[in-house]
Design goal:
With 424 residues, the protein is of the alpha+beta class. It folds into 3 domains: 135 residues; 69 residues; 192 residues, Alpha-Beta Complex (Gamma Fibrinogen, Chain A, domain 1). The chain has 6 helices and 12 strands. The chain is rod-shaped, with a radius of gyration of 85 Å. The chain binds 2-acetamido-2-deoxy-beta-D-glucopyranose (NAG) (5 copies). One 2-acetamido-2-deoxy-beta-D-glucopyranose binds next to loops.
């Protein structure tokens, strides 16, 4: 519509411009005729006027020419105007058609836009579907992969299952065997227990039997009328011996301190016995063989009068050092001679201290046979073969006067006197 308006205004302006125009050729011809006319006059006087006329006429001519020109042009223009109008009309028509086209185009454009948007929408839908499809595809691939794996897994599981079942069967077989074995074991262990109790019984029987044999052997040995511990070499402990003059009596036999067959005649191992005794008691003997005791002077005299005896003295100092002193001809005289002591030759790993008592009679608080002006037995609450009292006092008060004076041992916690028939 805008374009049509502009064209109408342009045509009106053209029409106004074309009114009153002439041609220029006529003006030139007039000027030449006027110049020829004037040549006859006094040129000098007329000349300016003539120029002036000429100028005016030129001007007039020119305007005439212009007018003529203008009219010509006007006519021309009119033709052209009409042409233009025709063209204009044509243009108008075409513009209208153009408008129509334009509208159509606009409509179509709208349609196109609508279509485009639809297409876009569809495209986006398609895209989204594509992605879902792609996803699904991926999923599917994945799933198929997994299903393959699953199949493999199932296969493996089946194999495992079958092997497990096989093993189960084996295990149940084994467990049956184990049960059988266990039961077998039970019966065996029961039998073993029975055998053990039987064995235990038999052991006890054997023990009893053994004790019986020992008893029998002892009584048999005792019936041999032995006068020493020599036959009891295998059986240390208390045994009955028979000695002419005193008859049968118990003695303690020792086979450990200095070889087999020793009779223990005196023992101090715990201080549980009272050694402050009178003559009669020392004559008879006192104490307990599992503790401290003195065998008795009369028995010692009777034993040692039968044959030669050796004496072994075992000494343990307070600090625990062990010593021994041996005399090879131990003899006790009869009571009339005061149970006097004879020792023989000394041998040992300690000083020959007891030599001081050699040949001395026995002294008790009620019978003084010592070399002292006083009674050593009273002084020292004991009975011993005192000289001018003593250099050793194995019957001395336990923990006070139980001594063996020497460089290596003095106070004692243990003392034992043992005798054995001397080998010829
Ligand atoms: C294993 O095998 C037994 C017997 O064939 C069956 O009952 C069971 O379901 C199987 N188990 C599996 C996990 O396959
Ligand atoms: C159990 O053991 C006995 C003897 O050892 C055998 O005779 C028997 O066959 C076994 N039974 C089983 C079930 O293994
Ligand atoms: C032991 O002495 C008794 C009598 O005192 C006597 O009958 C017996 O025969 C003696 N035994 C032996 C083996 O000498
Ligand atoms: C009995 O004692 C003697 C002497 O000690 C010994 O030789 C003998 O083997 C003993 N007998 C038995 C059965 O112990
Ligand atoms: C030991 O015996 C004597 C007489 O036998 C007695 O006088 C004394 O009191 C007794 N000593 C102890 C500690 O029992």
């Amino acid at each position: 519509m805008g374009r049509i308006k502009i064209n109408v205004v342009l045509l009106i302006i053209l029409k106004l411009f074309l009114v009153g125009t002439t041609t220029g050729e006529e003006t030139y011809e007039n000027d030449r005729q006027i110049d020829e006319l004037c040549s006859s006059y006094t040129y000098k006087s007329v000349k300016p006027l003539l120029d002036y006329f000429r100028q005016v006429r030129n001007e007039l001519d020119q305007s005439e020419i212009k007018e003529k020109h203008t009219s010509e042009i006007n006519a021309d223009l009119m033709i052209k105007y009409h042409e233009i109008v025709g063209i204009h009309e044509k243009l108008m028509k075409e513009a209208f058609q153009l408008d129509e086209y334009k509208n159509q185009i606009i409509r179509k454009e709208n349609d196109l836009q609508l279509c485009q948007s639809k297409v876009d929408k569809l495209e986006s839908e398609i895209n989204s579907q594509q992605t879902t499809i792609n996803l699904n595809w991926f999923h599917c691939l994945h799933l198929s992969d997994k299903s393959n794996k699953l199949e493999i897994c199932e296969d493996q599981l089946k194999k495992l299952n079958s092997s497990v079942i096989e093993k189960d069967e084996k295990i149940s077989g084994y467990s049956a065997t184990i049960q059988n074995i266990t039961e077998h074991q039970k019966t065996i262990s029961l039998k073993l227990e029975e055998r053990q109790t039987m064995l235990f019984k038999k052991d006890k029987d054997i023990e009893i039997c053994h004790a019986e044999i020992i008893k029998l052997n002892r009584s048999y040995l005792n019936k041999m009328n032995s006068s020493s511990c020599l036959p009891f070499e295998e059986y240390p402990g208390v045994h009955e011996i028979k000695v002419s003059g005193v008859g049968s009596f118990d003695v303690l036999c020792d086979s450990q301190l200095a070889g087999p067959g020793w009779i223990v005649i005196q023992q101090r191992i715990g201080g549980k016995e009272n050694f402050t005794r009178d003559w009669a008691t020392y004559r008879k003997g006192f104490g307990s063989m599992d503790s401290d005791f003195f065998l008795g002077l009369e028995k010692m005299y009777r034993l040692t009068s039968l044959q030669q005896y050796e004496l072994y003295i075992h000494l343990v100092t307070l600090s625990g050092s062990i010593f021994y002193a041996r005399y090879d001809d131990f003899k006790i005289s009869d009571e009339d001679n005061g149970y006097a002591l004879s020792l023989g030759t000394f041998r040992g790993n300690i000083e020959n201290t007891m030599r001081d008592s050699d040949k001395m009679k026995f002294t008790t608080f009620d019978r003084d046979n010592d070399a002292s002006s006083d009674n050593c037995a009273v002084w020292f609450n004991s009975g011993w073969w005192y000289n001018n009292c003593f250099k050793c006092n194995l019957n001395g008060l336990y923990g006070k006067d139980l001594v063996w004076w020497s460089e290596t041992a003095n106070y004692l916690k243990e003392a034992k006197m043992l005798i054995r028939p001397k080998d010829e």
